[in-house]
Design goal:
The structure is a single chain. Helix content is about 70%, strand content about 10%. The chain is mainly alpha-helical and about 140 residues long. It has one domain. A two-stranded antiparallel ribbon has the order 1-2. The chain is elongated. Keywords: Membrane, Transmembrane, Transmembrane helix.
Length: about 140
Amino acid sequence: MDVLEKIVVPIAVVLISVVLAFFTARAQARTQVRGQQRLDYLLSAYRTIADCAHRRLSAEQAHAFERAMQDVVLLGTNEHIELATSVQDSLARGGGAGVDELLIALRRDLRSELGLKASEVGGVPTIRLSAGDSEARGLDRS
């Protein structure tokens, strides 16, 4: 029986360790994929909101803006959600709404998640080009 215990117990311990390592690695991979998906959605939302800021929107752009705001509310931090909700409330009341605070918060947190240094540029720089015109019409650092 001593020989059996000396062989079976170590084999059982190794098998249990391998199974635990497999499930741990699988859970970590799922978490990593979810984090990357969240990052991708928020980057896309940031780009869409920035693209729509400070301009008249076509119906297609307005729809894209709405989707981006929904993504921020679904996947953003509490701060992002509060800022996005504030923008949506202002728009629902029929007034204009500034998105600069939301863009600044998104940019700060996305840069952090990507492991980049905090940006020292204040505000949200935007350049608007007119269709068929290669000259920049203005740089706004709101």
